[in-house]
Amino acid sequence: MADLEIASASAADLLLMRDWAESEGWNPGEGDRFAFAVADPRGFLVGRHQGTPVACISAVRYGAGFGFIGFYIAHPSVRGQGYGIQLWRAGMAALDGRLVGLDGVVEQQENYRKSGFRPAWTNLRYEGVPVPGDSSLPPGVELVDARELPFERLAAYDRRFFPEPRDAFLAAWTGLPGRTAYVALRDGAVEGFGAVRPGVTADRIGPLYAADQRIAAALLHRLASAAAGRPVSVDAPDVNPAALTLMAGAGLTPVFETARMYTGATPPLNFPHLYGVTSLELG
Fold first, then answer.
1. 133 Cβ neighbours under 8 A, 6+ residues apart
2. Burial (CB count <10 Å: 0-12, 13-18, 19+), residue 16
3. Consecutive 10-residue runs of the chain (283 residues): their mean pLDDT?
4. pTM over 0.90
5. d(CA 102, CA 57)
């Protein structure tokens, strides 16, 4: 293999990684990189050959025991030359001793199996403009701007759906300009949360959490209204069949598929209330 210089990504490198992800057809969210950077500033790696970036990966650490792999891309001009595997090894080394997760595209899943990952569920990306439908809330439930909720309550709710705290990431994810986020409250208790941000080909909804399908539908339509007629996309997990039913009923079409995979046991998340994952890059 040719020599490769591997280092933490700069701000300019993060923009390059976002552009590469767009070229792969992953439809990254506008501004995602700002939230990604605060999640783990050292968690993004770029490999350079003779000064030119040729490959990248993210290996983001959460808490003391979890990590997530994403942005695993070798530039098309150098594929098959061993650069990607060097980044892979560097990323996995950075997460040594942790449970590691990733969202693997179909063509790479067998390679991830060979590296010790096992599938936990499939994410199906549904996309389109939701058709009009019943988006009424159950009695006693209201939607409020997530930024009006004390942050510790939002973070505590998010912990039902993620293995470790991710407060810095979550604060940026909901607070960046151009984003809209709502929580569903019943008698002051959080029973749903969703966020939407601009994307390249469709605005991205994620996360989408809800105590039942009716609340999830209300959140979906409220977030879609913020997209002002643009298509939206949601990465819905098949581990919650109600999520797939909701997306199909809203007239959205599956366009992309990944597998959530882990190196160990699947974390005990609140799957019946998980309607859309936050990000395929950071979990």
1. 217, 221, 249, 250
2. middle
3. 85 92 87 93 94 95 97 90 92 97 94 96 97 87 96 97 97 94 96 96 97 97 93 98 98 96 97 97 93
4. yes
5. 11
